Amino acid sequence: MIVVRVAEHKEEDGKTQDQLVIGGSEDDGSYTGMYALLVAEQDESIGYRPRILAAPELDTEAVTKSLCVIAGKLRAFVYASCHGCNTMAEAITYRQKFNEREVMLLWPDFIAYNPKSGKNETFPAPAYACGLRAYIDHEQGWHKSLSNVPVKNVLGMSRHVFWSLQAEDSDANSLNNKEITTIIRRNGFRFWGNRTPETNAYIFEVYTRTAQVLADSIAEAQFETIDSPLTPANVKDVISAIRAKLDSLVTAGKLIGAECWYDVVDNSTTDLRQGRVRIRYKYTPVPRWKIWSFTRRLLMNTLNPHLRCWEVPDGCAKTSSLFTLFVDGENEVGKVTSVTLPKLTRKTDSYRGGGMMVR
Q1: Which of the pair, 277 or 356, is modelled with greater confidence?
Q2: For strand 156-157 and strand 150-151, is the pairing parallel, antiparallel, or unpaired?
Q3: What is the mean pLDDT of residues 32-43?
Q4: Which of 217, 184, 180, 174 has the alpha carbon at shortest distance from 195?
Q5: CA contacts within 13 A on the Cβ side of 269
Q6: What is the pLDDT of residue 334?
Q7: Statement: residue 333 has pLDDT above 60
Q8: In this structure, what are the phi and psi dihedrals at residue 261, rounded to the nearest 5 degrees?
Q9: Do residues 54 and 64 touch, judged by C-beta distance below 8 A?
């Protein structure tokens, strides 16, 4: 975990809390606020690139917007609250301010026990989302959404959210339809939702993270080829290595399919002379199993004569009156005052009648 500490806003400092959280580059070249995350990987005391970002309780609209910019540079993902929203309607209105693919908006927050105060208090959902995301990445992988996974050590939600598994008009579905991830109670408490504010290609959290991980994985794997001789053999080796990596991800179930190739049209003589090689790849991410769709049909066959059967033993005299008679699937309709049945063959011993009275 990489934590950047920021000062608490004071009137005499002349900076707002948002400015302190966002930070930037100082005159001496150092980075402050969230911009310090950009150099974490190059810091010898850290050496890691942050991939899961949040600013719990400080994630105003301005902070979240800036954090999305940082996420784009780091190929990271942001979990942010619908800051200051007390109702579902306010959260939906707040969401309309965003269209970035690198963020998931969450509403409401969690209720949990605070051992310091000895009371149940509100805790920011983005903090739990970051921890859960890291856990899922480790246990299952980046292709698994954080939705519908139990969140530990929470007692409730800060706002009521109506949810029922088959209720299409529930609060949870309304929030999901507006690209907001909410919280439900079902065998514990869970995040419920997968979407980002992006409504075109990268609509799901895992779509964005898949693109990020692939871009980094492919680039990192070919780091050693930088500044090596640019020969046809070396280019073929790079393509083979990328294909092998993509195939392994498909086999692991983290991609549905993927291809990689060298296109002559993309690589002009001028570019090749400058040492620039462009390699194309395409892939299909693993979509979310978002909705079960069951087609319901009202079936009255339980009242159908074909399902009501009486076996007529050989030699047993039985009569029937005022009925519609089905014999071996043939419909014989008529008002019959009385009919004697025992003379039928063994093949037609089974009588099926709608409302038939056999005496």
Answers
A1: 277
A2: unpaired
A3: 95
A4: 180
A5: 0
A6: 44
A7: no
A8: -160, 165
A9: no
Prior bond of 108 cis (ω within 30°): yes
Does residue 271 contact residue 230 with C-beta atoms inside 8 Å?
Answer: no
Average pLDDT over residues 162-171: 92
How many whole angstroms separate alpha carbon 132 and alpha carbon 126?
10
Supply the pTM of this predicted model. 0.79
Distance, in Å, from the CA atom of 326 to the CA atom of 354, rounded to the nearest integer, reads: 8
32 neighbors 66 (Cβ within 8 angstroms): no
Give CA separation, 251 vs 209, 245, 261, in Å: 18, 10, 19
Average model confidence (pLDDT) for the chain?
A: 86
| The pLDDT value given to residue 305 | 53
Is 189's pLDDT higher than 50?
A: yes
CA gap 162, 181 in Å, rounded? 14
The amino acid sitting at 167 is A
Pinpoint the alpha helices (H) of 164-304. 171-177, 205-221, 232-251, 269-273
Quote the tokens at residue 248. Answer: 């392994």
pLDDT digits (tens, 9 = 90+) for 299-326: 655 555 554 444 445 554 444 444 444 4
**Strand 180-185 to 103-106 pairing:** parallel
Q: How many residues does the chain have?
A: 359
Question: Residue type for 279, please?
Answer: I
Cα 346 from Cα 329, distance rounded (Å): 15
Q: What is the mean pLDDT of the segment spanning 167-171?
A: 91
- Residue 268 CA to its chain's centroid (Å): 40
Instruction: Please name which of 18, 206, 23, 214 lies closest in space to residue 104, comparing C-alpha atoms.
Output: 206
Q: Six-digit token pair at 279?
A: 């390699």
Work out the average pLDDT over 315-342: 44
Q: Is 24 left (phi over 0), alpha (psi -120 to 50) or beta?
A: left
CA–CA gap between residue 297 and residue 253 (Å, rounded): 35
Angle between helix axes 232-251 and 205-221 (nearest 10 degrees) is 140
Q: 113: which 2 tokens? A: 């026990």
Other beta carbons less than 10 A from residue 334's beta carbon? 9
